[in-house]
Structure formats: C-alpha cells, structure tokens
Design brief:
By secondary structure, the protein is α+β, with helices and mostly antiparallel strands. It has 17 helices and 13 strands.
Length: about 450
C-alpha cells in the first residue's frame, strides 16, 4: 500500500485529536463553584461555611427554613409548603417561590435574632420579580438577557469572573497527554481575576441601578450588569447618593449609610479608601523619605502581594480596600470571630490606651480596654437588619452622641453591647466630660 495514503488518515486523526484537546478558547463561561473545588478544596470548604454560600438557595431540608410556621401571628399568611427558596439565614430570612417562571418573595419575613415574623412588601410582593430586583447579587453568573444564572448564591465566580478558560488551562498543564507538548511552565495561564479592588464587593454592597446597555432603554436592574470584577464599577452601575435619595430612608443626617447594602458607599468616603492617595499627597520632602514599605499600611495590593511581586509606591493602585480586613473565603458566621477585629486595626493604628493624643491632651478613649474594641467606636452598629442595629458602619468615623438630633441616629456610645441602658443625656454629659474640647 502506498505510504503516502497511510499518512493522510494519520494526519487527519492528529488534527481531530488536537482539536478535541484544544477547544476554542473564546470568551470564558461560568462553570460553578463545584468546578473550583477540584483544585481549591481548602478555599471551597471554608467558603461553603460562609453566608455568601447560603444567600439564596432552594429548600432541600427542613433545617434550611428557620421561621416558625406554627406561629399564629396574623402576619404569616402563607404555609411552609409554599416556600420553595430561602434568602438569608443570619439576621432574617425571606421566603420565595417560583410563579410562572419568575421568582417572587412571599409577604412575611422571619427575624432570626428576634425570633418573630415581620410583614414584607405585603401589598407589592407580586410586583417584585427577583430577577430584576435581587438575583444579580444573590446568584452567580446572572444573564440580564435571559434572566438565567449559573449558580444560586454568591459563588467563586461572582468575585473571580467566569472560570471556564481557567479550568481548561489547568487541565492543559496537568494532563499527561497535554504535557507531552505543553511541558514548559511558561505555558501556564490563569485566566482568572484576582483583584483587591473594593468594587468587587461594591457590585453588591451598594444601592442603585444598572447603567443601561445598548438597546435596553431605562435601567431596570437594582444591580450592575455586564460588570467584570475589579473593573470600574461606575461604567455599569449608578449608585444612589445622599443628594439624590431620600435621606431618612437611606442615610443618617451626617451622610452615613442607614440601610444595608451600602457598605461600599460608606467605605468610598472613608480615609481607608484614600489611604494611598493621601500618602502621596501629604508627603513632603521634609519628612522621612517615602519608601515602598510605607505601603504596608497604605495599600492593599502591596499588603497582599507575595514578596516577589510587591508593587512600588509609583505602581501601587489601591488604598485600604475591603479584603485588607475581610477574607472572603473565610468570613465567619459567628460574632465571636467578629470580635477579633482589633487584629487588622492594630497592624497600622496605635491602640494602646496610654497613648496621648496631643491635640486634646488625654488618653485615646475612656472605656476599660477589656470592654471595647476599635470597631465599637469607629464602626458602630448603625444599620437595622433583622429588626435591630446589626450591621456596622464602614465610614470608620465615631458617631458622637452630641450629634444625635431629630434624625435619631445611633451613637458609638449607645449601640451594640455598650451603653444602651443609659439615657442620651447621661451619655452626652459623660462624653463632654471626657472629650472636653470636642463639639461633635
């Protein structure tokens, strides 16, 4: 038989094999967190214990539903059998079901901490399609054109972007058949987003509307669409501000967020967000030489980079962002762990109560050191969730009791586990006595 004729089918087989092993790369698609688990078992296991993994999910067992459906509370107008999905599990649970292909919230929610029912959009729940109001933040891989999504709750790809190319590349460098050709470590490609930008969190911990994409018309989603983690959030989202929103609904009189899902808005106006900018702006030649090591307290991309890839002052991009304090893979559900929040603070801030503040010539705070932590004063509980002040402010400012006016905002002194049992007059008198030179 002619050898040339043998070569043709061999070449064809080789081409087919290469085509099968090298699917067209194209735009990455969502593969769900279970695909990440194969290589990132430790991160997957810890993430699976966080609130993110339980944000919105189908009911699979009785333990998924925390509400008391034996209650005779007239607020409860539906039965346990009506519940197909649950949203949340720490402060409150909202219950939902699918009607004509759309998810809708049911008209009562369960306050977990207070163990009671509360009305929830009683007159309007049928006009609240969750695909437009909720699902962009409560699911992963939401498609604004089809309203479908890849995964319930906040999975890996909500923060790292769609992972198909990353998975395929990993197979290429780990498979023996692939390594016959792709033996060089230089062929390794991650194709996964690793950004320390606070916009990754801000895509959901924010309030506003999407910026309409071509041919959409008016914005209809309460979340950004077509957003890439780490990108400029303003390109896909129009956040509300104190100037264009009802203050007594979303903001306290001092501009601090009053409702949940606004942590990013608070952080954005804080000095943490401006830490890198202020370092460069305020540094003068008379000061000690500006060194890259200063970034340890002024730049999250520097703090989290390994020693071989740390940026310099001229190349660092971010100030102190969310992930400087929060590890999204291990965010605990327990208040006990949250009480350890002095640890990220003392890395950069002096917290010894014997430290003398030269401006007011006195110690830093009046309370016993074993009774309070940094967050009790600088991140007071200012947001009601589940019927009580449960979420801490992220503007990193003290809410003085002297500033409590008609807006009724909580002060740093009278929230959480502190002086709730004291009158406002008592707290104001004690505050003036200790901080003699402060008006606010």
């Amino acid at each position: 038989m002619n050898k040339r004729l043998l070569i043709i089918p061999l070449l064809a087989a080789a081409v087919i094999t290469v085509w099968q092993l090298h699917p067209e790369k194209g735009s990455p698609t969502y593969v769900t967190s279970s695909a990440c688990r194969q290589c990132h078992q430790e991160n997957y296991t810890s993430w699976n214990k966080t609130l993110h993994s339980k944000m919105f999910r189908p009911v699979k067992s009785d333990s998924d539903i925390l509400g008391d459906f034996t209650s005779q509370d007239p607020v409860l107008t539906f039965s346990r059998d009506d519940v197909e999905y649950v949203v949340g599990n720490r402060w409150e649970q909202v219950y939902a079901r699918k009607i004509d292909g759309e998810y809708y919230p049911l008209p009562a929610r369960w306050y977990v901490k207070q163990q009671k029912w509360s009305p929830y959009k009683v007159d309007s729940w049928k006009d609240i399609p969750m695909s437009e109001k909720c699902n962009g933040c409560h699911t992963t891989g939401f498609n604004p054109e089809t309203y479908e999504f890849s995964e319930f709750s906040i999975g890996c790809e909500a923060c790292h972007g769609p992972g198909s190319n990353h998975v395929n590349n990993n197979k290429m460098i780990s498979s023996l058949s692939c390594r016959l050709c792709h033996w060089s470590e230089g062929t390794k490609q991650t194709d996964i987003i690793r950004s320390v930008s606070s916009t990754v969190c801000g895509q959901c911990h924010n309030r506003g509307k999407n910026r309409p994409f071509p041919d959409q018309g008016e914005p209809i989603f309460n979340f950004p669409v077509q957003y890439t983690p780490g990108a400029d959030l303003t390109e896909s989202f129009q956040a509300i501000t104190p100037s264009d929103a009802t203050k007594d609904t979303f903001w306290w009189g001092n501009g601090v967020a009053r409702t949940r899902h606004q942590e990013f808005a608070d952080w954005e106006k804080s000095n943490h967000a401006k830490a890198l900018t202020l370092l460069k702006k305020n540094h003068t030649p008379e000061m000690q030489t500006l060194q890259d090591s200063c970034l340890e307290c002024h730049s999250t991309d520097y703090r989290l980079a390994d020693d071989a890839h740390k940026p310099a002052v001229r190349t660092a991009k971010y100030g102190i962002t969310c992930v400087a304090c929060h590890n999204p893979h291990t965010m605990s559900e327990t208040e006990e762990t949250a009480r350890k929040f002095n640890e990220p603070c003392i890395t950069c801030h002096i917290t010894d109560n014997t430290f003398c503040n030269k401006q007011i010539d006195q110690v830093h705070f009046p309370c016993p050191k074993d009774k309070v932590e940094c967050i009790d004063c600088h991140m007071p509980r200012v947001v009601k969730s589940g019927g009580w002040y449960s979420i801490r402010g992220h503007a990193f400012i003290i809410m003085s009791p002297l500033g409590m006016g008609q807006d009724g905002k909580p002060s740093s002194c009278q929230n959480g586990s502190c002086h709730q049992d004291r009158s406002l007059q008592w707290v104001q008198t004690a505050y003036r006595k200790f901080y003699k030179n402060r008006s606010e």
